[in-house]
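Minutes, structural biology subgroup

Action item carried over from last meeting: produce the structure token record for Tetratricopeptide repeat protein (Mucilaginibacter terrae). EB confirmed the sequence was re-checked against the source entry. Recorded below for completeness.
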Amino acid sequence: MKYTCICFLLLLACSAKAQPSTYKALITKADSLYQAKDYEASARAYSAAFKSNKWRGEVTDRYNAACSWALANVPDSALANLEYVAYKDGYRNYQHITKDTDLASLYINKRWPKLLKQVKLNEQEAEKKLNQPLIKELTGIYDDDQSYRLKLDSVGKKYGRNSKEVKDLWSTIREKDSVNLSKVTVILDKHGWLGADVVGDKGNLTLFLVIQHADIKTQEKYLPMMRKAATEGKANSANLALLEDRVAIRQGKKQIYGSQDLH
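Output recorded by EB:
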């Protein structure tokens, strides 16, 4: 599975603003080709994107390129991209890479064990610097934010979208959101927007999710903080694009990135 952090289906909004438009266009094309299962063409589009950007690319894009190359049965190119993010960018999501079925064709490659060892080392090194108490708190917030939302589809299919069961579930979600927002705003006001280097990837994502689900006044308050964090590498640019568009719509303005489904 392509490397995503929840909401990553909106690749059209993902790349950092400093990247050339050609790079972003090619990344969007590569993702579309992946979705169409034209893996070799997708992989070549990723390569073209990196070439257009002086062979630089976001970690997520290189990981996704590796997925496309692996699915196209070109292991050397797949491993080259993964080794790049592991050795040069410090990629550390050991749990994801070891369970990613897109990479299954690489499991028998002699370079695979060494790659996994490096990813594990990166993870262990990163964990030394993490704020474990905050991670524990944010993990609980994440679970509350996501667990009930993940039930909406199945409950809606079983009882109907306008059923009492769905309305009750939304009532619970709103209650959880209110509690979560109180906790997250305390963290943000005290520490600022914490990056994955302090609270891990999930903790960093949790900050965004709670603000994304908040009222417009809260979003307007913390949007500048997230913008600054994104320029410092402490917030995901894809998530920032989602928040930018949501705030714009609520303010009666046009979306910047077109990430919000208005239908």
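Discussion: The chain has two domains: 11-127, 132-250.
Next step: EB to file the record with the rest of the batch.
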